[in-house]
Amino acid sequence: MNPSPAASLVDRFGRRINYVRFSVTDRCDFRCVYCMSERMSFLPRARVLTLEELAALGRAFVALGVRKIRLTGGEPLVRQNVLWLCRELGQLRENGLTELVITTNGSQLERLAGDLHAAGVARINISLDSLQPDRFRRLTRTGELEQVLRGIRAAQAAGFQRIKLNAVILKGRNHDEVVDLARFAIKNGLDLSYIEEMPLGVISDHDRAEAYYSSEAIRTDLARVFTLTPSTETTGGPSRYYRIPGTDSRIGFIAPHSHNFCGDCNRVRVSAEGRLLLCLGQEHSVDLRRVLRAHPGDRDRLQQAIIAAMHLKPHGHEFQLGGQPIILRHMNHTGG
Ligand code: SAM
Ligand code: SF4
Questions:
Q1: Residue numbers of the domain that contains 243
Q2: Ligand 2 center from residue 332 Cα (angstroms)
């Protein structure tokens, strides 16, 4: 029996879950200082979900009423044959999926943007923390700014609309680029979200409390140059949006510290290993890989496991800036 989608994914607090993020790999060609430690060990291949398993998960979630799937990672576009997965998931639009979207560091877009668009990917978020090549390299440890800028242009040329930049702002590292990043977004017709760093995984690069730069501080910086008008627009995520009159860009703020967004949470995540994570900032999880591998092809059992997991979804995160992070997994495992 197929569970009825209408009432399926609702948690104990009455929140309807209609958005899922898949971390399709924990690997990445960058080593951003807030996301990874300099020396990372990655998962052995057998522990990572196969593309077929990810496609089966996509089908199960959409049958349960999920309307938006985001592919992330690690860097989703370094996963071999990721286009196959995009095509498989893209077909779920016939079953009720309204949006297949990707978050990427942009390094592979020059090569892949056209095929991603053709595969049914609706929108792309591209991470960009600095417009200064040296600084970009320091923040990503291995990244090349010009390659990402070419990727952005390729995504625009491929026909992607409402491309959004994501910028993690760290005090003393790139907080003086808040206005430059906004000018860049406006000039190129892009949206932009500023993100407060979250304490996920132990990192050695900087002290997170010292590097904290609040959304409020960013808004103050912007207000010196632009008029910011609050907007009720939403993209189904935790960003709070503003408009700058006379421009087409939306300016968003993702502020887990200064604005807790848990009350409206509509999403869950699947880690690269197939752990269904009920909250970015808590450890509550269910091992869906075990279900997939113990009962291949059994969609009902998979759906029942997902439905049962909703009871574990906690009310919210408990991020703290001081001391050791309470969440030891790095963002690349979780899928940001
Ligand atoms: N590799 C892709 C990228 O960088 O866009 C997708 C995965 S990355 C983990 C997704 C997003 O999470 C990026 O925008 C990145 O800047 C953000 N991120 C990573 N670690 C973070 C942290 N500790 N706090 C806040 N955002 C973080
Ligand atoms: Fe890679 Fe994205 Fe993490 Fe940077 S933020 S190291 S690009 S996964």
A1: 25-334
A2: 6
Does any domain span residue 326?
yes
Q: What is the pLDDT of residues 51-81, one digit of tens each?
A: 999 999 999 999 999 999 999 999 999 999 9
CATH number (domain holding residue 261): 3.20.20.70
Is 105's C-beta closer than 6 angstroms to any atom of ligand 1? yes
Q: How many domains does the chain have?
A: 1
- On whether residue 265 sits in a domain, the answer given is yes
Annotate 221-250 with b (16+ C-beta within 10 A) or e (fewer).
bbeeebebeeeeeebbbbbbbbbbeeeebb
Atom of ligand 2 lying closest to residue 36 CA: 6
**pTM to 2 decimal places:** 0.91
pLDDT tens-digit series, residues 183-199: 999 999 999 999 998 87
Q: Which ligand is nearest to the CA of 165?
A: 1
| Token pair belonging to 275 | 């752990």
Among protein residues, the one whose CA lies closest to atom 8 of ligand 1: 336
User: Would 15 be classed as within a structural domain?
Assistant: no
